[in-house]
Amino acid sequence: MFSAAALLKNALSGHTGWTPHWRKAAPKPRYDVVIVGGGGHGLATAYYLAKVFGITNVAVLEKGWIGSGNAGRNTTIIRSNYLLPGNIPFYERSMKLWEGLEQDFNFNAMVSQRGVLNLYHSDGQRDAYVRRGNALRLHGVDADLLDRDQVRAMVPMLDFDNARFPIEGGLLQRRGGTARHDAVVWGYARGADRRGVDIVEGCEVTGLRRENGRVVGVETTRGFIGAGTVGLAVAGNTSRLAAMADLRLPIESYVLQAFVSEGIKPLLDTVVTFGAGHFYISQSDKGGLVFGGDLDPFPSYAQRGGLPVAEDVAACAMAVMPMLGRLKILRSWGGIMDMSQDGSPIIDRTPVEGLFLNAGWCYGGFKATPASGWCFAHLLATGELHPDAAALRLDRFSSGRVIDEKGAGATPNLH
Predict the structure, then answer these.
(1) Of 44, 209, 228, 409, which has the maximum CB count within 10 A?
(2) pLDDT tens-digit profile of 274-288?
(3) How far apart are CA 316 and CA 259, in angstroms?
(4) Cα separation of 265 and 243, whole Å?
């Protein structure tokens, strides 16, 4: 366990006494629950299954290594400033879990509630943010509408005087911020392992075995593993895994790029999003500016993107903060987004008995990690949807009860 005494002891011994955070488990022949996907959502699900529901005969299967997927390929932003009733309670649960996460699993996830500021540039956009802020406050979520002077006092390096899209103000969620992406999965992995969960790395699922219409286990590169229940939490590879059970889902996979600049002195102590284009930026603890924008405009399973999106993100950066043109890009990467047809997630059972789904995270996957794990664990343990995820049903696409958060309709490339 981490403690002041343990830190002092290991500091005096040259930090040679630390043990691995989780076991390199070999798969057992059968588990009560098998979770496919060792990212944040899969590990959080296993953690809460063990901690909250006492279900410890659980395996998390990861084809790579922990943190090799989208968990290590995002821009680390956490927030709950959504608009629609189907999303607000869910993401607010996640925000509340973020606020106590490090104490809960005794691991430094570097949660920093530095605030998330959404800029607006027109009267119409201001009115839309007033509506969003009122919706948040009606659900007990913090939201503050700032005018131009208040934004200038908070983030003076933005381009207020010569901007192509003048900054009129912003909507601020002070409780939002960032967290260290890889530390989150390490913390959940460590916590789940300590409660008896097997984390099996280098174990790719190659098939779903069914008997009499029910999933009874998974075929993997390390042999067959039996399961009472199988949960899919594989983000951009959801459609591939679902096809193994003859399921066609309302999901398409796209690449979302992210970028990090060279390290600089402290400049930006909050998260800022550009209202006249899709662009968001924050500063990491290492000094690099972390930013991203739109999806690449074509379906892909590749963890890399194209130059047109990089150019568009750079143009947005220059439009809101011209000083960024003097910085060099240190690195970039791409994560595979499982884009649902209404831009909102899915946590539900599937038509195949014994198979459950956690998918459709679009842009919201990292920030949703704690609530996703909590609600998916509740579903796997009880068979019932958690109240905070009650609207995130799979059948909403056939019933017409979609949660069209961005209002762009059934066009994944525009979400």
Answers:
(1) 44
(2) 999 999 999 999 999
(3) 13
(4) 48
pLDDT for 1 beyond 70: no
Tell me how far CA of residue 361 lies from CA of 91, 189, 222, 238, 308, in angstroms.
Answer: 12, 21, 28, 11, 24
The DSSP 8-state label assigned to residue 25 in this structure reads: P
Question: Would the pTM count as exceeding 0.85?
Answer: yes
Q: Could you give the maximum distance between any two Cα atoms of the chain, in Å?
A: 68
Tally Cβ neighbours within 10 Å of residue 330: 13
What are the DSSP calls for 179-226, one per residue?
--HHHHHHHHHHHHHHTT-EEEES--EEEEEEETTEEEEEEETTEEEE
pLDDT, one tens digit per residue, over 304-359 is 899 999 999 999 999 999 999 999 999 999 999 999 999 999 999 999 999 999 99
Which of 47, 50, 53 has its CA nearest to residue 105?
47
| Contact by Cβ (8 Å): 366, 77 | yes
DSSP state of 64: S
Question: What are the beta bridge partners of residue 207?
Answer: 219
Tokens of 1: 């366990």
Q: Distance (Å, rounded) from C-alpha 372 to C-alpha 382?
A: 15
Asked if 330 and 262 count as a contact pair (C-beta separation under 8 A), the reply is yes
Distance in angstroms (rounded) separating the CA atoms of residues 42 and 281: 27
Cβ distance 278 to 293 under 8 Å? yes
Rg (CA), the chain: 21
